Amino acid sequence: MSQDAITTATLGVPRIGRKRELKFALESCWSGKSDETALLDTAQKLRAENWKEQQAHGIARIPSNDFSLYDHVLDTAVMVGAIPARYGWDGGPVSLDTYFAMARGRQGDDAARGCCGVTGASALEMTKWFDTNYHYMVPELTADQTFALTSKKPVEHFLEAKALGIHTRPVLLGPVTFLKLAKPVGGDFDTLALLPTLLPVYEELLKALAKAGADWVQVDEPCLVLDLDAGEQQALVSAYAQLGEAVPGLKIMLATYFGALGDNLDCALNLAVDGLHVDLIRAPEQLDAVAATARKGQVLSLGILDGRNIWRADLAAIRDRIAPVIEARGANLIELAPSCSMLHVPIDLDLETQLDADLKSWLAFASQKMGELSVLGRAFGGRAPEVADALSDASRAIAARAASSKVNDPAVQARAAAVDASQMQRKNAYTVRAATQHARLRLPAFPTTTIGSFPQTSEVRKARAANARGDLSDADYKSFIERETEGAIRWQEGAGLDVLVHGEFERNDMVQYFGEKLSGFAFTKHAWVQSYGSRYVRPPIIFGDVSRPEAMTVAWWKYAQSLTEKPVKGMLTGPVTILNWSFVRNDMTRADVCCQIALAIRDEVIDLEEAGAAIIQIDEAALREGLPLRKSDWKSYLDWAIRSFRLTASGVGDETQIHTHMCYSEFNDIIDAVAAMDADVISIETSRSRMELLDAFKSFKYPNEIGPGVYDIHSPRVPGVDEMADLLVHARKRLSDDQLWVNPDCGLKTRKWDEVKPAIANMVAAARSLRQRA
After folding, report:
1. C-alpha span between 746 and 767 (Å, rounded)
2. Helix, strand, or coil here: 741?
3. What is the largest CA-CA distance in the chain?
4. Which end of the chain is more exposed for a tag (fewer CB within 10 A), N or C?
C-alpha cells in the first residue's frame, strides 16, 4: 500500500472564526453598527480560511455549505421555502431580515433593528441538536406545506471554494432528518407525509450542484441512529431511491453520527448511496458489522476521531483497529474522518498559551484533529519517519495522562465509592416539606421569581476583564460587583418580584464559574464553541478527580440577602448540567464523574443552608439533553443522573426549599424521572411552545410545584401582559393553582436591561391579574 493511500475527510468544521469574528459581525449587524455587506464579507473570509486550512492539512474531502450565519437547520428551512406566514415572506429570494426574524423574532413596534426587524413576529422554537450542546431552530410545517428551492447557498459556496482552487464536497441536511426535526403546526400530522413534495426540491439542488462541477455530495441523515419504525425506514429507502437516480454521476456520501445504526443497519446499507459514514466513537462496536455487510464497491467513511470531545487520540490503537478493514475492502473504498462535524469542538489548541503543559499535551482541537487525520491517512503507507514519530508521541501522551497525579485523587475516589442510598433521600416527603416551607416563606399565590442571572452588561464584562488583567484591584472589583448586586436587589423589590436573586454579576458562566472553583477542572482562553447563533461558550475541561476546596457562593448570597427582607435564592448549577456542558474526561464513566461533581455541589448546598438560605436553586438545565438517543438506553442514564441530583439536594432539612430549572425539556417521555428528582419546585421553558410542553401533566399528576416559563428570553421581544397572562391561563388547565410559579423561561444574562425591565414588569402584572381571577 503506497503512502497517502487512504482518503481523509472532514464532515464539517467550526464556523465561528479563530477570534469569534462571526459573533462580532452578527451582533454589529443586528445593532445597526454595520450593514449586511460587512457581515457577508466576514462570512466569506471565514469560509476561505476554513477551506485553506483543511487543504494545508492534506484533507481530500473538504466540506462546503457547512458554514451558516446562524444555524444549518434554519438554512435548510429557508432553502426549501419552509417559511411560516408570520414572517411576511411572499416568495422569491429570502432576505436576511426574514432569516434573522425566524431565528430571533421581531419586535412589533421596532422599525429598525440593524439588518432585521420591521414587523412583530415570534421566533421559531429552538432546541438541542440530537444530544449535543448545539441548538437548532425547529422548522414549522403545515399539512398542506409547499416547498420550493428559494436559495442555492450550497451551489454558491461550492463555486466560491472552486474559485479558490479548492474542490469541495457540499454538505446537505438530509430530507428525512429535516422532516423528522420539523414541528407540525395547524394540526397533528406526520411530517414525513410531506416527503414526496420535498424531494423534487432536493433533486433540483443536486442537479445544480452537478452542473457546477460537484462529483460527491455529503447528505447527513443522523436520524438513522434513532429508533425508527418501519414507515420511517421506508421513507429513507424511497427518498434515496429517488435521489440516487436523480443525477447520474453525482455520488452521495450518506453521513450518520451520534450513535450506532443498530437495527437500522440493513436499511442504511440498502440505500441507493455510494458511500456511508459511521460513528466509531459513540459506537465502536459497529465497525465489524458495517464492514462485513457493506455492498461491494461502496465507500465506507470511518469516524475514528472524536468530533465532540477534545482528547488526543491513540493513533496507534486506531491504526491497528482499522487495518483489517482496510486490508479486506481495499484502501480505495475507505475514508478516514472525525465521528461527526467538528462544529462541536474548539478551533485551535495553539491559541491556548496559558494551559498547563501536561494537560495541553493530552488535547486535540479541530486543527489538531486534522493533523491526526493526516497522520492516520499516511500510517498505512511507507511508514515515513514523521508518521512513526507522531504515532509514538501520541502513545506516550496517553500513557502519561493515565499515570498523572494531576488526574488521580485517591481521597475523592474513596468518598465517591462510599456513597449510599441514605444520602439521596430528603428527611420527609414533599407534602410534609411543603407545609413547613410555606409557613416559613409566606409567599402569595402564583409567586414570581426569575431563573437567576441578570444582564451581563458591557460594564460588567469590562470590569471582569480589567480585574483579570490586573488593571482593576480585587477590592475595587468586589465593590463594583456589590454595587451591581445591590442595584439588582433594589430593582427587583421595586418591580414587585416575590423571590429575588442576586443577579450573578460575579459569574462568567453558570458552569465555568463553578468549575474554576473545583479541583479537576481546567479552562481555556480561546476555545469557543457555538451554542446557537452568536452565543458561544467555552466548555470547561474535566480532566481529573473532582472536589470542592472551599465554599463557592456563600459570601455573595449572604451579601445579597443582607440587602432585603425578601428571600434571595442561593444559585447553583447541578452536577448533570456541569457534566453535560463540559468536555468530560474519557478515561472513566460519565456516571462516576457525575457522582464526584454531585458530592462537591452537595457540600455547597449544605453550607448555603447553614448560612440561612431558605431557597436553594440547583439548575439542571441540561438533564434531558443528556438522554441517549435510543430509548433502550434511557433508564441507565436517568438512573445515575437522578441519583446525582438527589445526592446533591438531599442533605438539607425540610424547611429548605429546593428549586431546579430545566431547559428544552419535553417532559412527556421522562415525567416519571422528573418527579423522581423530588425537587420542591421546578421551572421549565414553555413559552415558545405556548405551554404545549405541559401536556405531560394532563395524565401524570405531578406532585410538587412548577414554574412554566411565560417569557422567551432567547428573543429580544418584550411580550405584553395579556400574552403572558394567556400563557398562564393555558398552564392552569394542566396544573392546580397551588402548584404554579411565574417566571421567565431561562436566565436573563444574554438580554439587555431595556428588554428585561419591561418584560419582568409585564410578568409581575400578569401574575397579579391571575391572583385577582383566582
Report:
1. 17
2. coil
3. 81
4. C
Cell 475492502 belongs to residue: 329
Structure confidence at residue 401 as a pLDDT band (50, 70, 90): very high
| Alpha-carbon torsion angle 295, 297, 298, 303, nearest 10 | 110
- pLDDT, the chain, mean: 93
- Grid coordinates standing for 214? 460537484
pLDDT tens string 474-525: 999 999 999 999 999 999 999 999 999 999 999 988 899 999 999 999 999 9
Q: Which three cell numbers stand for residue 350?
A: 495553539
End-to-end CA, the chain: 79
The cell for 628 is: 441517549
Domains and their CATH numbers in the chain: 7-403 (3.20.20.210), 430-456+495-517+553-773 (3.20.20.210)
- Residue 547: strand pairing partners: 519
CA distance readout (Å), 633 to 127, 227, 263, 280, 636:
21, 11, 14, 18, 6
How confident is the model over 585-629, as pLDDT tens digits? 999 999 999 999 999 999 999 999 999 999 999 999 889 888 999
Predicted confidence (pLDDT) per residue in 659-714, tens digit? 999 875 566 788 889 899 999 999 888 766 666 667 777 777 888 999 988 888 87
SS3 709: strand
Catalytic residues: 714
Q: What is the pLDDT of residue 110?
A: 41
Instruction: Provide the b/e sequence for 501-521 (b: ≥16 CB within 10 Å).
Output: bbbbbbbbbbbbbbbebbbbb
Chain centre to alpha carbon of residue 774: 39
Annotate 273-315 with DSSP letters as a single string. Answer: -SEEEEETTT-GGGHHHHHHHSPTT-EEEEEEE-SS--BPP-H
3-class secondary structure for 105-167?
CECCCCCCECCECCCCECCCCEEECCCCCCEEECCEECCCCCCCCCCCHHHHHHHHHHHCCCC
- Distance (Å, rounded) from C-alpha 620 to C-alpha 635? 18
If we measure between CA atoms, which residue out of 722, 624, 620 comes closest to residue 671? 624
Nearest CA to 235 out of 189, 289, 198 is that of 198
User: The pTM is what?
Assistant: 0.90
Cell numbers that stand for 517 in this block: 472553583
